[in-house]
Amino acid sequence: MTEPIVVGITDAPAALRAVEWAVKRASAHRLPLKLIEVVGGAVGAIGEDEVIERAVAAARERVEATASALPRLGLKVYMRVDRGNPVAVLTDASAHASLLVIGSDHQDGSGGRRGAHGQRIAAGARCPVVVVPDVDVSKRSGVVVGVDGSPASEKAIAFAAAEADRLGEPLIAVAAWTPLEVPRNMAVYPAEYLENMEKLTAEALGLSLAGLRSRYPDLEIDRRVERGYPSQIINDLASSARLAVVGSHGRGALARFLLGSVSQDVLGRLATVTAVVR
């Protein structure tokens, strides 16, 4: 069986947006959908079993109601309600998923940093993770992808290009460059240094995008070379985009549960639906 798109279900509004996003992608790729809700927080207190049983029952009703409301159109839908640590359960489920989709756990609408669950899930997952905020992105345009020439970046480009082509949206490929910190005895940067930094970044961006045109002949590609910190530039562009895609540089057993600073910062100030690819 083709590996499904797994969606984490909660009672938050963003979870419904996550389901809506996942349904569209599952239908487009003819993939099954698996809805998972996890009841966590048990500590073994006396009288806790009854509370957990009611929470599990409510979760089962919510998952079944979500599934019954979906536009089937041949879509296979599976359901699962589990007890345990939501991060661990969803991370484990990602091992048998083509994509893991979760809603943002941001609550106060202030634009500040999001909670850590989404970052931990994205870091530990064994498949690409899409984090969906409680924001309507239907009137936005473009798929933003951060490019830095790394293997993780190449995978992010492949994911972003496929999504942009599927959606009929332009691919906005951005490479950021940051000059070295100016020594105290140097008032300004040499103009030649800045020009060469920009030129080298542009060349690297071109190499990373080579071959896309032959694979996606109708894809509009907007190349951006920007000076500044990558996550800030990506989020600025993502604020008007339908999707942002970043690569995660996982290395070793510990790094699987840590995100790189750029992807962590992008998720920390979620500006649009964001995919983390490793």
Automatic annotation (TrEMBL):
<dbReference type="InterPro" id="IPR014729">
    <property type="entry name" value="Rossmann-like_a/b/a_fold"/>
</dbReference>
<dbReference type="Pfam" id="PF00582">
    <property type="entry name" value="Usp"/>
</dbReference>
<comment type="similarity">
    <text>Belongs to the universal stress protein A family.</text>
</comment>
<dbReference type="InterPro" id="IPR006015">
    <property type="entry name" value="Universal_stress_UspA"/>
</dbReference>
<feature type="domain" description="UspA">
    <location>
        <begin position="143"/>
        <end position="278"/>
    </location>
</feature>
<protein>
    <submittedName>
        <fullName>Universal stress protein</fullName>
    </submittedName>
</protein>
<feature type="domain" description="UspA">
    <location>
        <begin position="1"/>
        <end position="133"/>
    </location>
</feature>
<dbReference type="InterPro" id="IPR006016">
    <property type="entry name" value="UspA"/>
</dbReference>
